[in-house]
Write a structure and sequence with these properties.
Blueprint: H1 9-30, H2 34-56, H3 64-78, H4 83-94, H5 117-139, E1 147-154, H6 162-169, E2 171-177, E3 184-188, E4 192-197, H7 204-228, H8 231-236, H9 239-265
Helix pairs in contact: 1-2, 1-3, 1-5, 2-3, 3-4, 5-6, 7-9
C-alpha cells in the first residue's frame, strides 16, 4: 500500500476508513481488549469494505486496484487473529508463494495514516442517498427495479457522487434539488430527502395493500378503544394489561396515520 497511489475518491474514502480501523485495532490491542479489536476488524471488512467499498466500485472501476492495495494491507492487520487465511490471501493477491516470499507475520504491523474527514462525510451522505432512494422505491414495490429518475434534496452538493447513486440505486437519472417534488414517492432520512416520481407507475397493487392495512388497523383501534373506554375492564384488569393495551392503541394509531399519509401521497 502506497497512499500516494490512491487517486480515486472511492480509494481515498476506503483508505480513510481503513486508517480509522487501524487506530481502533491498535488501541484495543494496547489495552489487551482482543475481542474489541477483532470486532473492529469485522466491522471494517463486512460493514464497510464488502458492504459498500466493493459495491461502490461498480461505479468506479479505476478504484478496484486501489481497493486491492487496501485489502492486502488489511490482511496484515488481520494476521494475529486469522494467520493462515490472511497469509494465504496476501500471497495469492501478490502472485507469490510463501516458500519464496516474505511472510506477513514478520512484516511491519500497520500504523494509522491520516483520515480524510471531508471525503468520509461525502461518502456517508451518498450512501444515505442510495439507501433512501431504495426505500422510496420499495414503498411503490419497485425495490429492485430500475427507474427513470430520482431526486435528492440535500444541504450538501452531491452532484460529484451522481454516478455512484445512479448505479447502486438503479436510477437512470438523478437530479439534485432544494424543493419537494410533487406526485412522488418520498423518503426522509436523517440528513436528506429523496423523491421517485410516480408518473407511469402502476400503483394499484400498492394502494390495495395500503387499504388492507388501513382496514386492519382501523379494526384494531376500535377494539382497543372499546376495551379502554370500558370502565369495568380498566378497573378490574391488571395494571400491566391496561398499560399494554394503551401502548398498543398508540402504536396502532401512529401506524394508521402513516398509512393514511401514504395513501394521501398517492392521491387516495
Amino acid at each position: 500500500l502506497d497512499a500516494a497511489q490512491i487517486k480515486t475518491s472511492l480509494g481515498k474514502y476506503m483508505l480513510s476508513r481503513f486508517n480509522c480501523c487501524v487506530s481502533a485495532v491498535r488501541e484495543n490491542l494496547d489495552e489487551y481488549r482482543f475481542n474489541d479489536a477483532a470486532t473492529e476488524l469485522y466491522k471494517f471488512f463486512w460493514d464497510e469494505f464488502c458492504d459498500w467499498g466493493i459495491e461502490l466500485s461498480k461505479a468506479d472501476k479505476a478504484a478496484i486496484g486501489e481497493l486491492g492495495m487496501i485489502f492486502k494491507e488489511a490482511m496484515k492487520l488481520l494476521s494475529p487473529f486469522m494467520p493462515f487465511l490472511s497469509e494465504y490471501l496476501y500471497q495469492e493477491l501478490s502472485g507469490t508463494k510463501l516458500q519464496d516470499a516474505r511472510s506477513i507475520m514478520v512484516m511491519r504491523y500497520p500504523h494509522p495514516g491520516e483520515r480524510d474527514e471531508r471525503i468520509e462525510e461525502l461518502f456517508s451522505l451518498l450512501i444515505e442517498a442510495i439507501v433512501s432512494i431504495r426505500r422510496a422505491k420499495a414503498t411503490i414495490e419497485l425495490g429492485n427495479a430500475r427507474v427513470v429518475k430520482a431526486y435528492v434534496k440535500s444541504a450538501v452538493d452531491l452532484s460529484a457522487a451522481a454516478d455512484y447513486i445512479k448505479t447502486l440505486a438503479k436510477v437512470d437519472e438523478v437530479e439534485f434539488t432544494q424543493q419537494n417534488i410533487a406526485n412522488s414517492a418520498r423518503d426522509v432520512s436523517e440528513r436528506l430527502e429523496t423523491f421517485v416520481p410516480l408518473e407511469g407507475v402502476d400503483l394499484s397493487g400498492v394502494i390495495s395493500r395500503l387499504n388492507a392495512q388501513k382496514a386492519k388497523l382501523q379494526k384494531e383501534i376500535e377494539k382497543l378503544s372499546g376495551m379502554l373506554n370500558n370502565e369495568k375492564f380498566v378497573a378490574s384488569a391488571p395494571q400491566a394489561v391496561v398499560e399494554a393495551n394503551r401502548e398498543g392503541l398508540q402504536s396502532a394509531q401512529e401506524k394508521f396515520a402513516k398509512v393514511c399519509d401514504e395513501l394521501k401521497a398517492f392521491g387516495e
